[in-house]
Amino acid sequence: MAESTNRKTLIGAFVLGGGALALAVIMLFGHMRFFAPSREAVVVFQNSITGLAVGAPVNFRGVKVGSVKSITLRFDPLDRKAYIPVQLTLEPDQIHIVRDVPGGTKVSMQEMIANGLRAELNLQSFVTGQSNIELDFDKSTPAILHPRITGELEIPARLSTMEKLKDTLSDLPVKDIASHADATLLSIKDAQRQDEHGPATADCQRESHHRPLA
């Protein structure tokens, strides 16, 4: 009886030890943070987010500080516009918000947003077409929030360089430019024809001038 009890105790200890070891391995190599609270925020886009997927990295000037948790689509019947809320999970061990003064209070995410924290869609690779979220400070971009779309902490979005270029190109009067280009080409062709026929006409005039009268 005592031997059976000792055997069960040994098996139980082995199982508990194995479970603890497996948990340690998962936490070490799987980056599972059971006891670290995560910070979540939302970025609301109106333009296309082609290439962005759940799990895509969230970077701040190249440093990964989180990942994309979810992507949804919402339509507001009041303004008849579609919005794309992208929920972010920010890693607490990568973002250290320091105190404003020694012994003072920590700067909150709301204060960082008020100081110009913005998010934009960034194309990671032209080959794969994958995109990620880039964070940076930009006070020149107004903070446009969408309280009707989300009630969570929102990081205002700004246009990326590629999006600004697309908007600039779309605003160009392409038809007018093309018509002016066609008119310019026609003028050049007319000038070339005149240059080609000009010497022959001059030769004919000289021949008729020097021809003796009958």
UniProtKB/TrEMBL annotation:
<keyword id="KW-0472">Membrane</keyword>
<keyword id="KW-0812">Transmembrane</keyword>
<feature type="region of interest" description="Disordered">
    <location>
        <begin position="191"/>
        <end position="214"/>
    </location>
</feature>
<feature type="domain" description="Mce/MlaD">
    <location>
        <begin position="43"/>
        <end position="137"/>
    </location>
</feature>
<protein>
    <submittedName>
        <fullName>Paraquat-inducible protein B</fullName>
    </submittedName>
</protein>
<keyword id="KW-1133">Transmembrane helix</keyword>
<dbReference type="InterPro" id="IPR003399">
    <property type="entry name" value="Mce/MlaD"/>
</dbReference>
<dbReference type="Pfam" id="PF02470">
    <property type="entry name" value="MlaD"/>
</dbReference>
<feature type="transmembrane region" description="Helical">
    <location>
        <begin position="12"/>
        <end position="30"/>
    </location>
</feature>
